[in-house]
């Protein structure tokens, strides 16, 4: 009897361990392999280490593995089917039995989670669409906070505080740098991600610390948006940014390493940060992009160019590009306002293959005098409404460099004011961009596209009224930056219900509409900017 009970306990323990070992759907599966050989520089000496996974329904996924120090290699990916998966490894060094022709299996199950990234799936860009969705087709309104230095400099406690705040404020993406760059020459422990230029060496200790921070992004239900190769080719510190100085083969090798290391996370890749991707640099970046993303890969890919630059005509036909990002610049001048509302992005998106258009870096709150919450809101709403609605990013001048009391921004001039990152996540604009996201998600935002032709009277600079309309013509929205009468064409004299969304108070109230003679008129009740929402009866 005692023997039988002991066997029962052993069986129960084995079952429990097996259950714990099961990988959740859309969650990171990780497998460690031990090389039978030591390599001087595995990045070059092992040309290929990959794992061919076969799903329960027979689909094949080939996932690149990566070196993680010593003789340890790993593979990571997020399984998209429940059931039993099998795998077989391939190594360019076929004599290395620890890496070549290793076989195995694992089980993927549905696990309870409060987060869309694990219940609705990874972020994808459906072909022919202007927006992102989860794998199950649920539209994903991109709302990012720019924390370039956050994972590199933050303590664990700081990072947890920050991520919890972003979740509470309706953000769903965190943009950050993955290596040393002009804004951070080393991480919090004084390490760099790699050394060398013509031939580089990976510092796995740097990335093991970064792993924890990226794990935490996903653990809070957020998407990680890592910049693979910071690329600004001008200004102080450009010699620190890998996208600027690395030769193309090294840039591709580093990018492939990062994709292998973080491809098991829920991610949106930024190929470069602040790069100049056109003219003399165009072929370089197309070569790098194709070298990293020209084959099967996890996640969608964004381009993040310099301020005030537009790369749509050059990159819209690149199949590996999903998000044609733009950056409007860090001021609120009339010229910048006009660039957002009537510039090349607003004019030319209709002429290009469908991509996702997002302002990935509008003006940072606090960056210069005169850029405060109203200017952040203006830039954000104008940007969202200037192309098919897809999303927006927010930044503050102390969050991205992760400033603590008494610190300054590396390789950047001293600003007029420099708060701490903790103060900045509570700034009005920081909170109000969250309001914007939460407001948009209450509607079928993915159907909304620019419809400036509905506006009867053009508006002056600084008072530009942006208008979007749904594909079925049942919903119209107009962003009104200053209280003024809005007059829209309504040639069919259709009946509409109207509401005003107060962008500051985060409240929706009824709109007093005047419908007559083929027009709709409404005047905001708020003293600040607001959005008019018209719904056909």
TrEMBL record:
<feature type="domain" description="DUF5060">
    <location>
        <begin position="25"/>
        <end position="91"/>
    </location>
</feature>
<feature type="signal peptide">
    <location>
        <begin position="1"/>
        <end position="21"/>
    </location>
</feature>
<feature type="domain" description="Apiosidase-like catalytic">
    <location>
        <begin position="128"/>
        <end position="447"/>
    </location>
</feature>
<dbReference type="InterPro" id="IPR013783">
    <property type="entry name" value="Ig-like_fold"/>
</dbReference>
<keyword id="KW-0732">Signal</keyword>
<dbReference type="InterPro" id="IPR017853">
    <property type="entry name" value="GH"/>
</dbReference>
<dbReference type="Pfam" id="PF16586">
    <property type="entry name" value="DUF5060"/>
</dbReference>
<protein>
    <submittedName>
        <fullName>DUF4038 domain-containing protein</fullName>
    </submittedName>
</protein>
<dbReference type="Pfam" id="PF13204">
    <property type="entry name" value="Apiosidase"/>
</dbReference>
<dbReference type="InterPro" id="IPR032260">
    <property type="entry name" value="DUF5060"/>
</dbReference>
<dbReference type="InterPro" id="IPR025277">
    <property type="entry name" value="Apiosidase-like_cat_dom"/>
</dbReference>
